[in-house]
Amino acid sequence: MYSSAARYIHIRGLVQGVGFRPFIYHLALNNQLFGWVLNGNDGVRVHVEGKTDHLELFISSIEKLAPPASSIREIIVREAPIGNFKEFTIRQSEDLTSEITEISPDIAVCEDCLSDMKTQEHRRDYPFINCTNCGPRFTIIRDLPYDRDKTTMSAFAMCPKCQGEYSDIMDRRFHAQPVACRNCGPLYELAFEDKKFHDIADILRMTCSLIEGGKIVAIKGMGGFHLACDATNEIAVRELRTRKYREGKPFAVMFGSLEAARQFLEINREDEQSLVAWRRPIVILPNKTTGKTLAYSVSNGFNTTGAMLPLMPFHHLLFDALNIPAIVLTSGNLSDEPIIIDNHGAQTRLKQAADAFLTYNREIFNRTDDSVVMVIAGEERLIRRSRGYAPAPFNLPFNADSIFAAGAELVNCFGVGRGNQAILSQHIGDLKNIETLDFYAESFTRYRQMFRVNPTHIVCDLHPDYLSTAFAEEYAQNNGGLPILKVQHHHAHIAACMAENGLDEPVIGVSLDGVGLGTDGNIWGFEVMKADFSGFERLTHLEYIEQPGGDISTHEPWRMALSYICRYLGHDTDISLLKFYNDAGPETINLVKKAIKFGINAPLTSSAGRLFDAVSAMTGVCIHSDFHAEAPMRLENVINKSAEGTYDIRVGEVIDPGEMIREIFSDIKNELPIPDISAKFHRAIISAIVRSARFGQDKTGIDKVVISGGVFQNRFILSCSIEELRRTGFKVYTQASFPSNDGGIALGQIAIAARRRREGTF
Length: 762
Description:
The chain is of the alpha+beta class and 762 residues long. Strand 23 and strand 24 form a beta hairpin. It has five domains: 5-90, Alpha-Beta Plaits (2-Layer Sandwich), CATH 3.30.70.100; 103-186, DHBP synthase, CATH 3.90.870; 188-360, DHBP synthase (Alpha-Beta Complex), CATH 3.90.870; 393-500 and 740-759, Nucleotidyltransferase, domain 5; 545-733, Nucleotidyltransferase, domain 5 (2-Layer Sandwich). It has 23 helices and 31 strands. The protein is 34% helix and 20% strand.
């Protein structure tokens, strides 16, 4: 057969580590075409030749039939000279340019591999089975292009059988970089007391015995260690809380199957799609009100549970052997430290938390926590973006090359710009300790290397006390005094939502959040602004109030309750009927009253988060907070959605909650049920959001509303706000692919910095 035409094709996007070259090979064979395909660090390159109609069908099929985990950003096609190739081949990878391709996130084990695990003799019950369509990716990658010698699988030489599969173009494991079997690949080891188990049957038997017997097992996962116990055993779960120093925050649970999860949780069609997706996130789901229940201490009083399904081959083997439907599977760390990834570190740091250690001998290079999502208003929305999602980039409509965005302080993710892409890191965590800061610095170094980024412009939060800001300032200074831009926190929130939705025009931004330094030196957090990427104008905001004790009030929400009562009901108001009065004690309350009155260590705040704290403490729902945003979460948790009524919150040049606070206090005195008070409060906030957006529209004429900030992780607030804003005639834009909490801040920082640089003001 003689070729009549030839094409050179460059495919850019997430096209490495997802079976793309074998896909191209088979597509070429099916269309009777010749030539070659190779991985470059800038994507997949193809030379293909044959009949013109076959070429056209081949090109049109690339995007239609691409592997499920791939994501094509661009296909460039141009004519090429005919090379008279006699076959189609896969060539060795080349490092062609300074450009880079995208790195695949880790992919849950596929059904074909689960089937092979039961039928292939050399992989029967082998817990590291994978193929071109599944398995570890980002967590094992050291550098690009994605080849075995640049991953932590380089320590394992393939046996002849695996090498044959790896080299066989017709095999599903052709060029699957982590390919292995029990004869040549990684292996598990279970250490319990003074015994060690290496046979997989013994490991499974013993692990099941330990978990079913109420013990806690540290299990090495895809991106780090987990701590596991029986999710139906209250004593075991409480013991895990004690050992992990995690008093209140809910635990994630892994169910053996979707059917098992349905016995405990309400799962709709959209929830199911997230649960079974190849990314395998934790999905926040409502608990069933009747039927089977998990141990109380799993969710600690919340009416939702973070659920996930098995993602690694070992998880499937484990649940095949377990006699329980679900296990707690929480991050293997202590308190606020990063998830542990190395065997020695786990056995050292977790020795007081775990009774046994299940490890394997393949290195995790890039640590990743589990991602967390919620389905709100019919759409999957990320709460924590990590395993399965990072480091997939986001395409911007403008150049962001060489920008480093330091992110925020809490739930930190940083970002780097590469061409027209923003590449956000996996979840780093709260930058409160040296361990997390070290993880931040290590990950930043690796991102610069992997994505070939040499930052020339630095952008960070306006707050001078954030460790991310200090890191950015130090990096800029140590690299020749690079220009650094400090961006107001809530402007970055709005810009992130704008970027995600492809908006590049003035909008009304409504940001409800916990804390962010304002341009006036006060703490902001309920802001309505006219904003674009170039800047913002504050239109209205929640009225300032004293935050007694500063940051300590986030752990002691009763302080904010006292502040609101003093402001709007008077310092001499009798509060002895409130639960927090006796809890805090009259003496302490009088001291805090004085601090409020005289402004001693009581910075002014307009934070929506602190208002939620105040109402949560006034009602006695949460007086002391054990974890970030517990008080607002518990207030949402008790809503009686069928309760009618709302409170009066006034919107103008400022948003005045005074009458609302007085009405809440009256309802508490009159013993209105707390779930009804919660409902009326939430409806008042929704009303304030809508009316403040309308106030902004009256001032600007803009009908596009962008909403962002941590408060919009509240299902009731977000879903009702979307509905009411649309009913009022607004075009409403929200976040889904990136968190509306501070984990998405870096995207907004990059977008603002890119625009300011283009305008010459940065």
